[in-house]
Amino acid sequence: MFSQNRSIGTMVPREAWIAVYMMTDRYRGTLYTGVTGQFFTRIVQHREGQLRGFTKKYSLKQLVWYEIHDLMTEAIQRETSIKRWPRQWKINLIERDNPRWDDLYSAVFEWTPVPRRV
After folding, report:
1. The whole model's pTM is what?
2. Which helix (H) or strand (E) holds 3?
């Protein structure tokens, strides 16, 4: 599957999507903000507990928010910014697009729309 990379006008394999994302364990639960250059692979790794660290320790397996970026440098800046935010700002960001805190895994992995870009 491919998604249109609007800034350079080329097709980008969905496996190579650059993304900032948030994982949780439940509605308004513990939050983890991450960045990756392999969005699909990384989310599967979180869900299957393959990555040692915070997400595995707290069993954060639900994808509740993500943004697709054209450049890794932009994504890292966005992740760094979000990590500095107060918790309520992060909740507001999630609830703007996902008010019920649905796990977006199925929506993203079973159906691949053109990703949301910032």
Report:
1. 0.82
2. strand 2-5
